[in-house]
Amino acid sequence: MNAKVTVIDHPLIQHKLTLMRQTETSTAKFRNLLKEIGMLLAYEVTRDLPLKYEQIKTPVAPMLAPMLAADKKMVIVSIMRAGQGILDGILELIPSARVGHIGLYRDPLTHVAVEYYFKVPSDIEQRDVLVVDPMLATGNSAVAAIDRIKEVSPMSIKFLCLLAAPEGISHFQLEHPDVPIYTAAIDEKLDEHGYIIPGLGDAGDRLYGTQ
Ligand code: URA
């Protein structure tokens, strides 16, 4: 059975996503919106983090208080380059998270995702991983990234994006039925160039002003 696809459709996220989609939104605004949405998405994706209870003292009384249980902080793996936009938001909320990067490019002839960079914490086997990329379009890079991350055997893997196409979700679930997907919206379809429709254009270009 396929892992769950969760659409995080909080009104604040939907509003900010609409602003991001608009052609006239500037690079600076786009970047800031992606960071803000990254923060809001992280809030939801980390809902099931385990807690432990510690004895503390408030100025008024002692209490048994909840704290995050994980000894090993989670790892956020950004699929370069657009993943950086979501990553920045998540790190605002979880500053102690560890960070990994994976760089992939699409071979122009074969259209296969080719790895050019991979760096993750050496003790990733004892950590939970959240892989981030704003756009789940064909699913090729997400699938290749998860293939690679599975080689280093983290404790668990989740995938977080901003926008997903139905084609990308089907492809991802076929290859990685055990990895849950979190997204802010599922759009209509892909065009013949692999762009999400209606989408928001090229997320990396809009993030860095390279269009
Ligand atoms: N990557 C993007 O940045 N945008 C799309 O629409 C599809 C893939």
Automatic annotation (TrEMBL):
5-phospho-alpha-D-ribose 1-diphosphate binds at R81, R106, D133, P134, M135, L136, A137, T138, G139, N140, S141, D202. Allosterically activated by GTP. Pathway: Pyrimidine metabolism; UMP biosynthesis via salvage pathway; UMP from uracil: step 1/1. Its EC number is 2.4.2.9. Uracil binds at I196, G201, D202, A203. Transmembrane segments: none annotated. CDD domains: PRTases_typeI. It is an enzyme of class 2 (transferase). Binds 1 Mg(2+) ion per subunit. The magnesium is bound as Mg-PRPP. It catalyses: UMP + diphosphate = 5-phospho-alpha-D-ribose 1-diphosphate + uracil. It comes from the Bacteria. Keywords: Allosteric enzyme, Glycosyltransferase, GTP-binding, Magnesium, Nucleotide-binding, Transferase. Its cofactor is Mg(2+). Coiled coil: none annotated. One of its GO terms (molecular function) is uracil phosphoribosyltransferase activity. Pfam families: UPRTase (PF14681). Belongs to the UPRTase family. Catalyzes the conversion of uracil and 5-phospho-alpha-D-ribose 1-diphosphate (PRPP) to UMP and diphosphate. This is Uracil phosphoribosyltransferase. It comes from Funiculus sociatus GB2-A5. The gene is upp.
